[in-house]
C-alpha cells in the first residue's frame, strides 16, 4: 500500500484494502480519488472515501455492500453509489468523461477511463488517484502534475475555460487557497478575474453557488476567503453592492473559541456556519433578507434564523430593562434558535444584554417542568387556556426561585389554582 495512505486510521485502511481485493475479484479497475488523496499527501485528516472504477460502479458497490452487510444507496442518474459502513461514507462512481454544452450548464457525461475522470476535475491538486488493484497497488496516477502543485502550494485549473464552464469553481479555488495557504497559479488568477469580469455567475443557479459558499462558511477560519471574494467582487452573487460585516464574523469566531463547551455541543449540527452567516449579513434589512430566502434553498430552520435576526433591537431593549427577571429573559429568548442567539450574543452592544443571552444559552434553555397537564387534571383543572396559564406560571417560579423538585412545583401549582379560583 502506498506510503501516503499509511497515515489513514487502521480501520479505514482495511476498508480501502478490501475495496481493492473485491475490485480484483470482479476484474474492475478501482482508484481512490479526490480530496482524500490530496489530504493524505498533505498529511491532513480526511475520511471521505471517494472511489472511481472503470466500468459499472454499482457492481462493485453491491458486492461490497453484500460482503459488509451495510446500507447502500444507489443514485441511478449519476451512476454512483454510497455505502455507509462503520461510520465511514464511501462514494463509488463510474469513471466518466464530461463535456460542457454551454458555460455554466451541467456537463454531458459519458463513460470514460480514470485518467479522463481526473481531467474533468477542478484543480490539479484534486486530480490525483491511487490505484487499489493488486497489480499497481498504491501507485499514484498524476496525469496533470497535481503532486508537484501540492508540494509547491499552487492551485491550478486544468484549462482556461474551467471557471466559465463551472463558476462554482471560483468559490472552491478561494476556499482551497485560503485553507491550505496556497496561491493561485498566475494563469489561474487571470482566468478567475476574467471569468468574474464576464459576470460568469449568471450562468449558474444561485443554489449551486450557495452550496460552495456554505462550505466556505464551514471552514475553520472563513474570513480570509470571504475577504478575498469581496475584493474580487464575486460576493455580488449574494447581493449586489451589499456591505458585509466581517468584524462581527470575527466576534462570533471568538465567541465559539472562548466557549469550547458550546463548540463541542454543536459540532455535529449546522449551527456554527449559520451564526457566521447571520453575522456576515447583519446589515441586511427585511427586504434583503426576504429576497435572500426566496432565491437560495434554505431549510426552515435556516430561514427562521435569517428572518429572526431582525428582532435583535427589540429583544435587546427587553433584555436591558431594569431588574429583568430570568423568567422574562426565558420567555423572550425561547423563540429563537441557537445560531440566532449566538448572533445576538455577539452583536448586542451592552454587557447586560450579553449576560442575559449567555445565561439563556448556558442554563435557561434547559429549564422545563416535571409537572404536566395530567398532574393538573388530577388536581381538577380542565385542559384549556387556564391550564396553560398555570403551567406557565409554575415555570416562571421554577426559573426565578430555582425550584428543585417536582414536589415544589406541585405546591406552587396548588397555590396558583387556589389564587385563580378565589374571587
Ligand atoms: P473537502 O476537503 O472540502 O471535502 P473535497 O475536494 O473532498 O474537499 P468535495 O466538494 O467533496 O471536496 O469534492 C470531491 C472531489 O470532486 C474534488 O476533490 C474534486 O476532484 C471534485 N469536484 C468537486 N466539485 C467540482 C467541480 N465543481 N468541478 C470539478 N470537480 C469537482
Characteristics of this structure?
4 domains, 22 helices, Beta Polymerase, domain 2, two-stranded antiparallel ribbon, alpha+beta, binds adenosine-5'-triphosphate, 423 residues, 7-stranded mixed sheet, 11 strands, cca-adding enzyme, domain 2
What's the arrangement of secondary structure elements?
Blueprint: H1 10-25, E1 29-33, H2 35-41, E2 49-54, H3 57-68, E3 71-75, E4 80-85, E5 88-94, E6 96-99, E7 108-111, H4 114-119, E8 129-131, E9 140-141, H5 146-152, E10 154-155, H6 162-165, H7 168-180, E11 183-184, H8 186-197, H9 206-217, H10 223-231, H11 246-258, H12 260-266, H13 271-280, H14 286-295, H15 300-308, H16 312-319, H17 326-333, H18 338-347, H19 351-362, H20 373-378, H21 385-401, H22 406-421
Parallel strand pairs: 2-5, 10-11
Antiparallel strand pairs: 1-2, 1-8, 3-4, 4-5, 6-7, 8-9
Bound molecules: adenosine-5'-triphosphate.
Adenosine-5'-triphosphate is lined by residues 34-35, 46, 48, 121-122, 126, 166, 168-169, 215.
